[in-house]
Amino acid sequence: MSNRQREIADALGVIPPFADQAALLAEVERRKAFIQDCLRRAGLKVLVLGISGGVDSTVAGRLAQQAVQALREETGDDGYRFIAVRLPHGVQHDEDDAKAALDFIQADEVQTVNIADGVRGLLGQIDALTPLSAERRDFVAGNVKARMRMIAQFAIANARNGLVIGTDHAAEAVMGFFTKFGDGACDLAPLSGLVKGQVRAIAAALGASEKVAQKVPTADLEDLRPGKPDEEAYGVTYAEIDAFLQGKPVSEQAYEVIVKTYDRSQHKRELPFAP
User: Fold this and answer.
1) 27 domain residue, yes or no
2) Is residue 197 packed enough to be buried (19+ CB in 10 Å), middle (13-18) or exposed (0-12)?
3) Residue 55 belongs to a domain with what CATH number?
4) Residue 207 annotated as binding site
C-alpha cells in the first residue's frame, strides 16, 4: 500500500476486507445498531430513504427496515417506521429494478414523488442555461434532479419528524460521485467506509437476488444517456477502486485516475469554505 492509498483509505474510514462470513454478519449488525442509535440520539422514530433500484439504496433500505423492526419489537412502540420513497423523473427506464428492490426491502411505507414537474419548472426559470450546449445543459439538469430528490426526502422527513438516510460509501466518496447538497446530503450514512464489493456482499447476505446485488451501478441523471454506468463516468472499474482503497496493487493508470479525482473532488467531502 502506498502512502497515498493509506492516507485516502484512513480519511474515508475504509473497512478492511471481511475475513469471513461471520465478520460480514457482524458488520451488518453493527450498522443496524448504528441506525438505531441515530434515532435514539435524535429522539425520533422515522427513517426516510429514496429507493432507485440500485444495490446501494437497496442495502441501506433493508438495513433500515430491519433496524426499525427490531426497535418496534424491543419497545412495543409502533411509531418506529421506515419510509421508502420512489423518486422517478417522469418514467424511469429501469422501473422494474426499483420495484424488485422494494419487494426485497419490504418497507413499512412506500411513497412516490415524481420530480419531473418540479425539475422542469425550476430549469425553465434559469436563463443561464439557455446558451449552454445540450450536453452541458443535461449535466446541470442532472444535478438539479439529485437535489430535487433530496428536497423531497427532507420534506417527508420534516413532515413525519424523521431522519433522511444517505447511501454514500467509500467507493463513491473517493471519486466524489455524488451531487453536492443533493444525494450527498443526509442525516446518516450507514454504508460509509464500505467498498462496492462489500455492499454487494452484504446485499447477498441479506437475501437479495443476484440481479439486485450485481446490478450495473448508474446515477441515471442524464436524459441524453439514461442508465450511463458509473464506471464509464469514472474511467476506472469498481474492482480497481475497491482494490485501491483496500491497499492492493492497481495499474498506474487506475492509480492516477483515482488520486486525481479524489483531489479534485475534495470540496465535496468538506464543509463550505470559510475565512
Assistant:
1) yes
2) middle
3) 3.40.50.620
4) no
pLDDT of 26 over the 80 cut = yes
Residue 27 marked in a binding site: no
**All cell numbers assigned to 106:** 419490504
Asked if residue 267 belongs to a known ligand binding site, the reply is: yes
Domain assignment present for 259: no
The set of catalytic residues is 56, 172
pLDDT tens digits for range 162-193 = 999 999 999 999 999 999 999 999 999 999 99
Secondary structure class of 18 (helix, strand, coil): coil
- The whole-model pTM stands at 0.95
For residue 63, the surrounding DSSP H or E stretch is: helix 55-75
| pLDDT classification of 93: cutoffs 50, 70, 90 | confident
Residue 97 lies in a domain: yes
pLDDT top residue among 223 and 9 = 9
Domain count, the chain: 1
Residue 125 domain boundaries? 16-233
Flag whether 273 is in a domain: no
Q: Is 78 annotated as a binding residue?
A: no
Span 200-226, average pLDDT: 91
